[in-house]
Protein backbone atom coordinates (compact mmCIF):
# COMPACT_ATOMS: atom_id res chain seq x y z
CA UNK A 1 0.00 0.00 0.00
CA UNK A 2 1.39 3.45 -0.76
CA UNK A 3 0.08 6.78 0.37
CA UNK A 4 0.02 9.89 -1.80
CA UNK A 5 3.10 12.01 -2.27
CA UNK A 6 3.94 13.87 0.90
CA UNK A 7 3.25 17.56 0.67
CA UNK A 8 3.42 20.69 2.73
CA UNK A 9 0.20 19.72 4.50
CA UNK A 10 1.77 16.68 6.08
CA UNK A 11 1.70 16.90 9.86
CA UNK A 12 4.44 15.27 11.87
CA UNK A 13 5.77 14.81 15.37
CA UNK A 14 9.18 13.70 16.59
CA UNK A 15 9.63 11.91 19.93
CA UNK A 16 12.86 11.14 21.76
CA UNK A 17 14.07 8.59 24.32
CA UNK A 18 15.23 11.60 26.31
CA UNK A 19 19.01 11.12 26.35
CA UNK A 20 21.26 13.89 24.97
CA UNK A 21 22.05 12.12 21.67
CA UNK A 22 18.40 11.33 20.94
CA UNK A 23 17.28 14.86 21.89
CA UNK A 24 19.92 16.36 19.59
CA UNK A 25 18.71 14.23 16.66
CA UNK A 26 15.07 15.01 17.48
CA UNK A 27 15.86 18.75 17.35
CA UNK A 28 17.70 18.31 14.05
CA UNK A 29 14.74 16.46 12.47
CA UNK A 30 12.31 19.08 13.80
CA UNK A 31 14.32 21.92 12.33
CA UNK A 32 14.82 20.21 8.92
CA UNK A 33 11.13 19.34 8.56
CA UNK A 34 10.20 22.87 9.61
CA UNK A 35 12.51 24.23 6.88
CA UNK A 36 10.73 22.00 4.37
CA UNK A 37 7.47 23.63 5.45
CA UNK A 38 5.84 20.55 7.00
CA UNK A 39 3.47 21.14 9.91
CA UNK A 40 4.53 20.19 13.42
CA UNK A 41 1.45 18.75 15.15
CA UNK A 42 1.91 16.78 18.35
CA UNK A 43 -1.79 15.93 18.69
CA UNK A 44 -2.84 14.80 15.20
CA UNK A 45 0.30 13.90 13.25
CA UNK A 46 0.23 11.88 10.02
CA UNK A 47 3.71 10.61 10.75
CA UNK A 48 5.58 10.10 14.02
CA UNK A 49 9.36 9.86 13.95
CA UNK A 50 10.81 8.27 17.08
CA UNK A 51 14.43 8.72 18.09
CA UNK A 52 15.89 6.18 20.54
CA UNK A 53 15.14 2.49 20.31
CA UNK A 54 12.31 0.03 19.95
CA UNK A 55 11.21 1.03 23.47
CA UNK A 56 10.76 4.63 22.26
CA UNK A 57 8.60 3.43 19.40
CA UNK A 58 6.52 1.30 21.81
CA UNK A 59 5.87 4.43 23.88
CA UNK A 60 4.85 6.44 20.83
CA UNK A 61 2.55 3.61 19.73
CA UNK A 62 0.73 3.74 23.09
CA UNK A 63 0.61 7.53 23.00
CA UNK A 64 -1.14 7.49 19.60
CA UNK A 65 -3.17 4.36 20.42
CA UNK A 66 -6.47 6.13 19.67
CA UNK A 67 -5.48 7.25 16.17
CA UNK A 68 -3.63 4.24 14.72
CA UNK A 69 -5.58 4.46 11.47
CA UNK A 70 -4.19 7.92 10.76
CA UNK A 71 -0.63 7.64 12.02
CA UNK A 72 2.46 6.10 10.42
CA UNK A 73 5.58 5.45 12.47
CA UNK A 74 9.24 5.52 11.54
CA UNK A 75 12.08 4.94 13.99
CA UNK A 76 15.66 6.22 14.18
CA UNK A 77 17.88 4.22 16.52
CA UNK A 78 20.52 5.85 18.65
CA UNK A 79 21.67 2.59 20.23
CA UNK A 80 21.85 -0.78 18.53
CA UNK A 81 19.72 -1.67 15.50
CA UNK A 82 16.07 -1.97 16.45
CA UNK A 83 13.22 -3.95 14.95
CA UNK A 84 10.95 -0.95 14.75
CA UNK A 85 13.69 1.69 14.81
CA UNK A 86 15.73 0.87 11.73
CA UNK A 87 17.19 4.20 10.57
CA UNK A 88 20.64 5.24 11.69
CA UNK A 89 21.52 8.73 12.98
CA UNK A 90 23.88 9.25 9.96
CA UNK A 91 20.89 8.79 7.67
CA UNK A 92 18.78 11.58 9.18
CA UNK A 93 19.22 13.96 6.21
CA UNK A 94 18.29 11.19 3.77
CA UNK A 95 15.22 10.28 5.83
CA UNK A 96 14.06 13.90 6.07
CA UNK A 97 14.36 14.40 2.31
CA UNK A 98 12.40 11.18 1.75
CA UNK A 99 9.74 12.39 4.19
CA UNK A 100 9.39 15.78 2.59
CA UNK A 101 9.76 14.91 -1.06
CA UNK A 102 8.79 11.33 -1.89
CA UNK A 103 5.70 9.18 -1.57
CA UNK A 104 6.22 6.31 0.78
CA UNK A 105 4.99 2.78 1.25
CA UNK A 106 2.95 1.91 4.29
CA UNK A 107 3.58 -1.47 5.85
CA UNK A 108 1.00 -2.79 8.30
CA UNK A 109 1.77 -5.22 11.11
CA UNK A 110 -0.74 -7.18 13.21
CA UNK A 111 -1.50 -6.24 16.81
CA UNK A 112 -2.67 -8.23 19.82
CA UNK A 113 -6.08 -7.48 21.30
CA UNK A 114 -6.33 -8.07 25.06
CA UNK A 115 -9.70 -8.02 26.82
CA UNK A 116 -9.62 -8.26 30.61
CA UNK A 117 -13.01 -9.20 32.08
CA UNK A 118 -13.73 -8.76 35.78
CA UNK A 119 -15.85 -10.86 38.13
CA UNK A 120 -18.57 -8.20 38.19
CA UNK A 121 -19.37 -9.39 34.62
CA UNK A 122 -20.25 -5.96 33.27
CA UNK A 123 -16.76 -4.55 33.72
CA UNK A 124 -14.06 -5.09 31.10
CA UNK A 125 -11.01 -3.30 29.72
CA UNK A 126 -9.60 -3.54 26.20
CA UNK A 127 -5.95 -3.03 25.30
CA UNK A 128 -3.76 -3.33 22.22
CA UNK A 129 -0.19 -4.60 22.34
CA UNK A 130 2.48 -4.03 19.72
CA UNK A 131 4.88 -6.58 21.26
CA UNK A 132 3.13 -8.75 23.82
CA UNK A 133 1.07 -9.24 26.93
CA UNK A 134 2.64 -11.07 29.85
CA UNK A 135 0.55 -12.53 32.65
CA UNK A 136 2.00 -13.43 36.02
CA UNK A 137 0.81 -13.32 39.59
CA UNK A 138 2.31 -10.97 42.14
CA UNK A 139 3.02 -13.88 44.49
CA UNK A 140 3.25 -17.59 43.80
CA UNK A 141 2.58 -19.49 40.59
CA UNK A 142 0.04 -18.51 38.00
CA UNK A 143 -2.66 -21.17 37.83
CA UNK A 144 -5.13 -20.72 35.03
CA UNK A 145 -7.27 -22.63 32.61
CA UNK A 146 -6.31 -22.04 29.00
CA UNK A 147 -9.14 -22.26 26.46
CA UNK A 148 -8.41 -22.18 22.76
CA UNK A 149 -11.22 -21.45 20.34
CA UNK A 150 -13.79 -22.05 23.07
CA UNK A 151 -12.43 -25.46 24.18
CA UNK A 152 -10.48 -26.17 27.34
CA UNK A 153 -6.90 -26.90 26.27
CA UNK A 154 -4.87 -27.18 29.49
CA UNK A 155 -4.52 -25.97 33.05
CA UNK A 156 -1.32 -23.95 33.21
CA UNK A 157 0.73 -23.78 36.40
CA UNK A 158 4.00 -21.90 36.38
CA UNK A 159 5.60 -18.46 36.35
CA UNK A 160 3.40 -17.01 33.64
CA UNK A 161 2.40 -16.83 30.00
CA UNK A 162 3.50 -14.48 27.24
CA UNK A 163 1.19 -13.82 24.29
CA UNK A 164 2.96 -11.97 21.52
CA UNK A 165 2.45 -10.43 18.10
CA UNK A 166 4.64 -11.49 15.16
CA UNK A 167 6.68 -8.26 15.39
CA UNK A 168 6.97 -8.78 19.15
CA UNK A 169 8.21 -12.33 18.61
CA UNK A 170 11.80 -11.04 18.57
CA UNK A 171 11.35 -9.43 22.01
CA UNK A 172 10.37 -11.17 25.27
CA UNK A 173 8.92 -14.13 23.36
CA UNK A 174 12.33 -14.93 21.91
CA UNK A 175 13.91 -15.00 25.38
CA UNK A 176 11.31 -17.61 26.33
CA UNK A 177 12.26 -19.85 23.41
CA UNK A 178 9.33 -18.80 21.22
CA UNK A 179 9.59 -18.83 17.43
CA UNK A 180 10.37 -15.73 15.40
CA UNK A 181 7.38 -15.02 13.18
CA UNK A 182 7.30 -12.91 10.04
CA UNK A 183 4.97 -9.93 10.63
CA UNK A 184 3.00 -10.75 7.48
CA UNK A 185 1.52 -13.72 9.39
CA UNK A 186 -1.62 -12.47 11.04
CA UNK A 187 -1.31 -14.51 14.21
CA UNK A 188 -0.51 -14.56 17.91
CA UNK A 189 1.95 -16.75 19.81
CA UNK A 190 1.59 -18.20 23.31
CA UNK A 191 4.85 -18.98 25.13
CA UNK A 192 5.20 -20.46 28.59
CA UNK A 193 7.33 -19.13 31.42
CA UNK A 194 8.67 -21.96 33.52
CA UNK A 195 5.64 -24.23 33.53
CA UNK A 196 5.47 -26.93 36.20
CA UNK A 197 5.37 -30.32 34.51
CA UNK A 198 5.23 -33.54 36.49
CA UNK A 199 2.83 -36.43 37.07
CA UNK A 200 0.24 -34.07 38.53
CA UNK A 201 0.51 -30.98 36.34
CA UNK A 202 0.87 -31.07 32.57
CA UNK A 203 1.07 -28.35 29.94
CA UNK A 204 1.91 -28.59 26.27
CA UNK A 205 5.41 -27.21 26.89
CA UNK A 206 5.80 -25.81 23.35
CA UNK A 207 4.98 -22.35 22.05
CA UNK A 208 1.64 -22.28 20.20
CA UNK A 209 0.83 -20.10 17.21
CA UNK A 210 -2.84 -19.23 16.66
CA UNK A 211 -4.26 -17.92 13.40
CA UNK A 212 -6.33 -14.77 13.04
CA UNK A 213 -9.71 -16.40 13.74
CA UNK A 214 -8.70 -18.30 16.89
CA UNK A 215 -9.09 -16.89 20.38
CA UNK A 216 -7.16 -17.76 23.52
CA UNK A 217 -8.88 -17.29 26.88
CA UNK A 218 -7.07 -17.46 30.22
CA UNK A 219 -9.27 -18.11 33.24
CA UNK A 220 -7.39 -17.71 36.55
CA UNK A 221 -8.25 -20.46 39.03
CA UNK A 222 -7.65 -18.33 42.16
CA UNK A 223 -8.56 -14.72 42.79
CA UNK A 224 -5.04 -13.42 43.42
CA UNK A 225 -3.22 -10.22 42.44
CA UNK A 226 -2.51 -10.60 38.73
CA UNK A 227 0.29 -8.74 37.01
CA UNK A 228 -0.56 -7.98 33.40
CA UNK A 229 2.14 -6.28 31.34
CA UNK A 230 1.20 -4.86 27.96
CA UNK A 231 4.45 -3.95 26.18
CA UNK A 232 6.14 -1.70 28.78
CA UNK A 233 2.96 -0.92 30.78
CA UNK A 234 2.17 -3.01 33.87
CA UNK A 235 -1.10 -3.19 35.74
CA UNK A 236 -1.81 -5.18 38.89
CA UNK A 237 -5.41 -6.14 39.58
CA UNK A 238 -7.66 -8.60 41.38
CA UNK A 239 -11.11 -9.97 40.61
CA UNK A 240 -10.16 -10.99 37.07
CA UNK A 241 -12.50 -13.51 35.53
CA UNK A 242 -10.69 -13.96 32.22
CA UNK A 243 -8.20 -12.48 29.79
CA UNK A 244 -9.00 -12.93 26.13
CA UNK A 245 -6.46 -12.70 23.32
CA UNK A 246 -6.82 -12.57 19.57
CA UNK A 247 -5.41 -10.76 16.55
CA UNK A 248 -6.79 -7.21 16.70
CA UNK A 249 -8.81 -5.62 13.91
CA UNK A 250 -6.50 -2.62 14.11
CA UNK A 251 -3.00 -2.66 12.68
CA UNK A 252 0.08 -0.57 13.28
CA UNK A 253 1.38 1.30 10.22
CA UNK A 254 5.04 1.91 9.45
CA UNK A 255 6.35 4.27 6.78
CA UNK A 256 8.81 2.45 4.51
CA UNK A 257 11.16 4.43 2.27
CA UNK A 258 13.40 1.55 1.26
CA UNK A 259 13.31 -2.21 1.50
CA UNK A 260 14.73 -3.63 4.72
CA UNK A 261 13.63 -7.26 4.80
CA UNK A 262 12.58 -8.64 8.18
CA UNK A 263 14.96 -11.60 8.02
CA UNK A 264 17.85 -9.24 7.30
CA UNK A 265 16.93 -7.30 10.45
CA UNK A 266 16.77 -10.58 12.41
CA UNK A 267 20.18 -11.58 11.12
CA UNK A 268 21.79 -8.20 11.81
CA UNK A 269 20.28 -8.00 15.30
CA UNK A 270 20.98 -11.49 16.55
CA UNK A 271 23.68 -13.06 14.40
CA UNK A 272 25.76 -10.16 13.11
CA UNK A 273 27.25 -9.33 9.72
P1 LIG B 1 13.58 -2.50 28.36
O1 LIG B 1 13.63 -3.56 29.41
O2 LIG B 1 14.15 -1.15 28.61
O3 LIG B 1 14.22 -3.04 26.99
C1 LIG B 1 14.03 -4.33 26.54
C2 LIG B 1 14.82 -4.61 25.27
O4 LIG B 1 13.91 -5.19 24.31
C3 LIG B 1 15.45 -3.39 24.60
O5 LIG B 1 16.74 -3.75 24.16
C4 LIG B 1 14.52 -3.14 23.43
O6 LIG B 1 15.15 -2.52 22.34
C5 LIG B 1 14.14 -4.54 23.06
N1 LIG B 1 12.93 -4.67 22.24
C6 LIG B 1 11.74 -4.03 22.36
N2 LIG B 1 10.89 -4.45 21.40
C7 LIG B 1 11.57 -5.35 20.64
C8 LIG B 1 11.25 -6.12 19.51
N3 LIG B 1 10.04 -6.08 18.96
N4 LIG B 1 12.19 -6.96 19.00
C9 LIG B 1 13.41 -7.06 19.55
N5 LIG B 1 13.78 -6.34 20.62
C10 LIG B 1 12.87 -5.51 21.17
O7 LIG B 1 12.03 -2.33 27.97
P2 LIG B 1 11.35 -1.31 26.99
O8 LIG B 1 12.36 -0.56 26.20
O9 LIG B 1 10.34 -0.54 27.77
O10 LIG B 1 10.57 -2.30 26.02
C11 LIG B 1 9.57 -3.14 26.50
C12 LIG B 1 9.76 -4.45 25.80
O11 LIG B 1 10.95 -5.01 26.22
C13 LIG B 1 8.69 -5.46 26.12
O12 LIG B 1 7.64 -5.38 25.20
C14 LIG B 1 9.45 -6.78 26.06
O13 LIG B 1 9.23 -7.44 24.86
C15 LIG B 1 10.90 -6.40 26.09
N6 LIG B 1 11.54 -7.05 27.22
C16 LIG B 1 12.23 -8.19 26.98
C17 LIG B 1 12.83 -8.86 28.01
C18 LIG B 1 13.56 -10.12 27.73
O14 LIG B 1 13.78 -10.42 26.55
N7 LIG B 1 13.91 -10.88 28.73
C19 LIG B 1 12.75 -8.40 29.31
C20 LIG B 1 12.03 -7.21 29.53
C21 LIG B 1 11.42 -6.55 28.47
P3 LIG B 1 15.69 -1.00 22.37
O15 LIG B 1 16.95 -1.03 23.18
O16 LIG B 1 15.92 -0.73 20.92
O17 LIG B 1 14.63 -0.14 22.97
CATH class of the largest domain: Mainly Beta
**Superfamily at the CATH H level of the largest domain?**
Probable inorganic polyphosphate/atp-NAD kinase, domain 2
Mean pLDDT: 94
The proportion of strand residues reads 35-45%
What are the segments in which pLDDT stays under 50 over at least 5 consecutive residues? none
Distance between the termini: 30 Å
Work out the radius of gyration. 20 Å
Secondary structural class: alpha+beta
Give the cofactors and ligands: NADP nicotinamide-adenine-dinucleotide phosphate
**CATH architectural category of the largest domain:** Sandwich
Shape: elongated
Tally of helical segments: 5
In helices, the fraction of residues equals 10-25%
Oligomer: single chain
Family: Belongs to the NAD kinase family.
Main location: cytoplasm
Enzyme class: transferase
Organism: Marinococcus halophilus
3D structure, described in words:
With 273 residues, the chain is of the alpha+beta class. The protein folds into two domains: 11-104 and 257-271, Rossmann fold (3-Layer(aba) Sandwich), CATH 3.40.50.10330; 111-249, Tumour Suppressor Smad4. It has five helices and 16 strands. It has helices at residues 20-35, 54-63, 92-101, 172-175, 262-270; strands at 11-16, 39-40, 47-52, 72-77, 85-87, 105-118, 124-129, 132-137, 142-148, 151-164, 187-195, 208-211, 216-220, 226-230, 233-237, 240-256. The strands form two sheets. Strands 6, 7, 8, 9, 10, 11, 12, 13, 14, 15 and 16 form an eleven-stranded antiparallel beta sheet that branches. Strands 2-1-3-4-5 form a five-stranded parallel beta sheet, with helices on both faces. Strand 6 and strand 7 form a beta hairpin. Helix 1 runs parallel beside helix 3 (92-101). 37% of the residues are buried. The model has no long low-confidence stretch (mean pLDDT 94). InterPro entries: ATP-NAD_kinase_N (IPR017438), ATP-NAD_kinase_PpnK-typ_C (IPR017437), NAD/diacylglycerol_kinase_sf (IPR016064), NADK (IPR002504). Involved in the regulation of the intracellular balance of NAD and NADP, and is a key enzyme in the biosynthesis of NADP. Catalyzes specifically the phosphorylation on 2'-hydroxyl of the adenosine moiety of NAD to yield NADP.
Amino acid sequence: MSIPSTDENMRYNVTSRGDDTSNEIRDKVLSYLNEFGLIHDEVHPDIVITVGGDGTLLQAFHHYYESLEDVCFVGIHTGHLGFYADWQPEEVEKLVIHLAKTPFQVVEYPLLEVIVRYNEHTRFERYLALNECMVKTLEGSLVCNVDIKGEHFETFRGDGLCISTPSGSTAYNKSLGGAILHPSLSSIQIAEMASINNRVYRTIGSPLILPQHHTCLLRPVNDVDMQITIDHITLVDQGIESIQYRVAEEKVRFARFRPFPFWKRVKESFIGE
